[in-house]
Amino acid sequence: MSDVFNWQLGREMSYPYDESHPDWQFAFVFNINRCIACQTCTMACKSTWTFSKGQEFMWWNNVESKPYGGYPRNWDVKLLGMLEKANPDEQIWDTFSKGPEKPFGVFEGKTIFEAADKDPSARAPKRALGYLPTDEEWQNPNIHEETASGKTMKEGEWGRSAQLPEHDIWFFYLQRLCNHCSYPACLAACPRKAIYKRKEDGIVLIDQKRCRGYRKCVEACPYKKPMYRPTTRVSEKCIGCYPRIEGKDPELSPNREPLETRCMSSCVGKIRMQGLLPVKDGKWEAAPDHPLYYLIQERKIALPLYPQFGTQANGYYIPPRWVPQPHLEQMFGPGVANALVQYSCPDRELLSVLQLFRSTQQIIYKFKIEKGPKLAEIERTLPSGQKKVQEIYNDTVIGYNKFGKEVVRATTEQPSFERTKEHLNSI
Ligand code: SF4
Ligand code: SF4
Ligand code: SF4
Prior knowledge:
single chain; binds iron/sulfur cluster
């Protein structure tokens, strides 16, 4: 085992290989607040990559309802239970020691790599704590859809309207794909060294020729994103739509402009933004005018999914406003309160950057904001229950592609068109 630095945990951790980083890192931000669970993303991936024989139960992208849904069933609850058992009562964060290198403080518990030797059921030493889901657990990708959690309603309480900051009865949609982790557990566990992380973009791939279908990656990935294909007897996973990232779509990127992936660019709810972050000396280069860097590092409004697992996952989420904070903190770490305060009442700069979500198919590398006139003042409710007035301006955000070319211009107030009365119902 080597010691590698994991910024999400604020400390070094054990990992089976030495630190090695790509030149650019594939990453994405999902705004959970906006997802409508239409599954367009899911079908966009399915119809592009996993429509063949043997891939029937393979959903590289899936959207599940929390708290009860999961694909495979109970994937996160099971692993959290294993970690708790391996390190009872110690899976906690020291949030007092925050700093530039440790924005969320220090995770004092054990990651899946550090708890690997604590699995009593393992016959041989493991590289990461994990389990192999059963066939049954893979069978129902959207089980418990929209099943809510919360306190039991008393007589007469039905019909009470939901109130922010938190709802008594709640559920939310969690959008998932491979996180193209900085310290991938799938790669760490593969005895064939068939899994690799690409230098040019950090995308994690399985070499189909080297894989022998031992399923060690399926067992080790805490997010359960590699999947076994019985017809070929090898494992497969999300490939980050790398031909699009490379700008190889002759129709949409004639000059090799990098495009966002299929699941991202098809998102109906406009919740997704994906991109590539420049990496230098093992860290993301400071780029406050890069939309992903801005949301993740500058504003810390987009948080990693289960950072305590230790893979330094590169999928980030703006948490939902209406869900009890303890549940969110277990899922997204100690940055939740700060993220919710900001999202509850975004300032004009943040509001502008949020307009970039799904505004273009091209990957945005840089943004600029041009100031506009004041539109309105609206009272918002903060997570504490306090009220705050939000000032809204009609600013314009401009997005630039890899080659510095302007590819999008979006105003805070969306342009609209009102039909004349005589054409109200015509097309
Ligand atoms: S397409 Fe977008 S809105 Fe629809 S389910 Fe997927 S992430 Fe949610
Ligand atoms: S999410 Fe899982 S499959 Fe994807 S890189 Fe991370 S460990 Fe590997
Ligand atoms: S990035 Fe591409 S391969 Fe991966 S889940 Fe999305 S659509 Fe599927």
